[in-house]
Design brief:
By secondary structure, this protein is an all-alpha fold. It has 5 helices and no strands.
């Protein structure tokens, strides 16, 4: 008979979560949760497109570009905040460039809506 490995997997995953919480700062955990939110929002928009259609196609594309672009910029922000020596910039300047790039991205998405 095969023995279920679910309790072992649960213990391993709880250990990994504990290591993650201990090794990261609250700021990085906040960035990570925002990344997960953006990924889920992008998937939700794509699922809506698949099931209900893309009647206002420009709106669909603008929404996907806004979420996907913000996701990409947020991943870049996380990389710069967690390893500032590699990028030779302070977390404040990384956040300022993140805000500026997001402003440009969303301006372009709003213009794309028509």
């Amino acid at each position: 008979r095969l023995r279920s490995k679910k309790p072992e997997k649960r213990e391993e995953s709880m250990e990994e979560v504990g290591k993650y919480i201990q090794s990261t700062t609250p700021r990085v955990r906040l960035i990570d949760s925002f990344i997960v939110f953006l990924g889920l929002t992008t998937l939700l928009q794509f699922a809506y497109c698949v099931f209900f259609g893309t009647f206002p196609f420009n709106t669909f594309l603008a929404g996907i570009f806004a979420c996907g672009g913000t996701l990409t910029l947020t991943v870049n922000l996380r990389m710069q905040v967690t390893d500032p020596k590699d990028f030779k910039c302070s977390p404040k300047s990384a956040f300022a460039s993140y805000l500026f790039c997001n402003l440009i991205l969303h301006f372009i998405c709003c213009c794309y809506l028509g």
